[in-house]
Structure formats: structure tokens, C-alpha cells
Known about the structure:
The structure is a single chain. The protein is α+β, with helices and mostly antiparallel strands. The protein has helices at 10-15, 17-66, 77-80, 99-112, 168-175, 177-236, 244-276, 288-298, 300-306, 327-343, 374-377, 401-411, and strands at 81-85, 88-92, 119-125, 130-137, 160-164, 284-287, 309-314, 322-325, 349-357, 360-366, 415-421, 425-432. Strands 1-2-5-3-4 form a 5-stranded antiparallel sheet. The structure holds adenosine-5'-diphosphate (ADP). The site of adenosine-5'-diphosphate has 21 residues, from helix 10 and helix 12.
Amino acid sequence: MGSKFAYRSLSDYMRSSTLRWLVLLASILIMLIMTVQLFWLNKVYSFEQKTFNTNVVKSIRGLYEDLDLVDTRVHHLQDLIEHPSTDYFLFRVDNFHTEDSIAYYLQHELNDFDVLTDVYIAYYDAGRTSYKDTTYITAAASRYPPSIINLAVYHRNFSYVLLYFPHRNKYVLQQMNFWFISSAIVFVVLIGLAVILFFFYRQRFLAEIQKDFVNNFTHEFKTPLAVMKISAEVLLQDKITAQPDRLRKYATIIENQTQHLQDQVERLLQIARSDRKDLPIEKKQVALKDLIEQAVAKVQPLIDEKKAEVNIQVDEELQNIALSADRAHLELAIVNLLENALKFSAKPHIIVSIGEEEGNIYISIKDNGIGIEKKYQKRLFQKFYRVPTGDVHNVKGFGLGLNFVKRIIDAHHGTIKINSLPGIGTEFRLILPATLNS
Ligand code: ADP
């Protein structure tokens, strides 16, 4: 049954509950790992910032031990060192030493405590309330040239030495290189996993489509073969030679069924062949009315079988309209649409017409069949798509016809319009560009 092997699109497949849960779980897991990763990066960043501060304070403490800058018996160390803003430190100096000696000792202390970034050193004179002198120490591995800046001034009623680290943040981030690289690896691995997961399920989905197709295919071929077998059995009966009418009847059945199978195989082959490349279009002048009449003649057996009524309606001025098109392909497109119109209508009344729309020519095939719900309409042209109709109709097919029609019309740079109402009928309009009309 047509409905039994209804096509499943990727999104249908994604809707299947196991897969939905799996995808959801994988997404949550990936998000979770990424969040944890970001959380850790943030933690490491704070830790590196703290370590930097501690190391600077340790270096200053070392300096106090190296040089007799204040009377440490009177002052507590924490009262002597300030950290007024991220990049600035200042420490009190009561007994002045030359700039050079402070810079010299400080450089060693900073090196010892792994503070390997450039630093400005300025001496603040409480008497003059300004910086007396500045020295710029370039770290051995510094990547940045020294720049002239206006140092922030912190007014105090004592003299102090100001330390300013112009590249502090970049330096801290540099220290985190290992973490960044490992995070990047984790991200890449996760994304890789997600991609593998996607392809794995896509593969499974394609396998499902293939299975659907094989089911459809077997189903399509089973009935004619069964009919032929029965007919052959009748023909094998001894008395059949005495009944020429019966003989002719069953031979005709076999012939019709063979023809039907041949047509199906030919159609599948044609689709398979054309699938690999663009449709080869051989254009010549095609009289449209004539083309439609021939297409209708092709489906005459089906028209008779369904006792259908098919009307061809062409306005007077379009009676002789001809387009530059591929005759065989265009006829096949119309035949496909006619077959569908006949298949999907209980008592088919089909109107085939030629008209003009916005300067373009169209061929319309209109039926009074079961119609197609709006939500299915945009997927009709996908390969293997068949509207899931439950058990409403029992119509055979592969879901390839409309896909082929679309490819034919695309090759002519045309468009297809669908007007359809469930229970009322469907109209397919093949709109061919006016440029073909030459
Ligand atoms: P097939 O007819 O072999 O199933 P098609 O690609 O020709 O494949 O059509 C795809 C689906 O579109 C059909 O299965 C049917 O559900 C729907 N369809 C096509 N034409 C009509 C029509 N005239 N009326 C109602 N449904 C249609």
C-alpha cells in the first residue's frame, strides 16, 4: 500500500523518540562540558591574577629585606604595600636610595618570583607630590616596545615607589596558554564527536530510505508478477487451445503487465541515469496543445480504467503556442502529473489547460482528487516523498514522479505552483519562462 511505505524525511526521522532523546542528551552533554570548561578557564584566570599579585608583593617584601627602605620594626608590611588598581602597586619608602639601586634590586626580586613582564618604576616624593623619576624595566622575554604613558598619581603623605605593569593582563593570559590550548582541543574533539554522531545518524537515515525504497519497489512489482503468473497458469491449461477468446484475453493481460513493468523499469532507469548529472535538454519548437494531447493519449489506458473525464482547455490565442523545449521530457512531466491526478482521484475529472501568467506560459493540470494538505506541499518534490495518508487511499508509487517533474522544469528554468485543497482537488501549474517562447 502506498501509505504503508510512506517516505520518512530526515526531520521525521529526527522526530523518532530514541533519536530525539539521544540528540538531546548529546547536546546537553556537550553544553555541560563546554560550561565546565569555561568555568575552569575563569577559575584559572582568577588564580593566575592572584598569583601575580602575591608574587609582586613577595618581590616588594624581598626588596625591603635587600634595602633599608623603611624601619620595619615600626611598620607592618601590609601597611606599607598598597594595590590601588589592577596594574599598580605602591610601597612606602622612608629612606631614599638611588633610583638605580631600587630598579636593580627590584628587577632581581621580580625575576626570582617569576614576574616576567615589563614594569614602570616611579618615585613619588611626598614633598613635591609628583613623580620624581621613572625607570622602565623591560622583561627578558618582553614582546612589547616600551611606551610613554601618564602614570596615575596617588597622593599620599609619605614617599613611595610606584610599580606599574603595562602588560599585566596579556602576561597573565599568556601564562594560561596551556589551558587555552587544552580547552581548544576539548572543543575540537567535542565538535568532532558531534559531527561523527550526525554522520552516523545520517547514514542510518539513508539506510532507512533505501529500505523504504526496496519495500516500495518489491510491492510495485509483486502485483503484476502475480497477475502474470496466474495468467500463465491459465495459458498452460490443455483446454485453452479450444478457447481462443480466453487465450487472447490472458495473453493480453500478460502483455499489458509486461508493458507496465517495462515502463516502470524504464522510468526508474531514467531517474537513476539523470540523477548523476543535469538533465540533458534537447530543445526544439514544441507545440504545447499537441504535446498535451499526446501526453493524454499516453495515459489513455488509465483514463479508461478509472472511467475518468479529461478536458483540454486552450484559449483561442494560445491554440498554436509553441515553446523551445525538450519535447520528450516535457511530455514525461505532463504524463507524471496526469498519472498522479488519475491515481489520487476517486472519480477523476481532470482539466488540462494552457494559459498566460505574468508574461509566462503555463500548463495546468487540475484534478478533483484527495488534495494535499498545506504542510506537506513543500516536501512533495523531495525524492521518495509520499504524503502520509494513513489508510485513506491505496495508491502505488515510489515518490519519484514529482521530483523528476521538478528537475525537468528546473532544467527549463521554470517554476511549479501548487494549488490544493484536501477533499477538493489539486492543481499543478508548470510555469515556463517567456524566453522559451521564441
Ligand atoms: P508517487 O505518485 O509515485 O507516490 P510522486 O512524486 O508523483 O510519487 O508524488 C508524491 C506524492 O505527492 C504522492 O505520493 C501523493 O501523496 C502526492 N500527490 C502527488 N500528486 C497528487 C495529486 N494530484 N493529488 C493528491 N496527492 C498528490
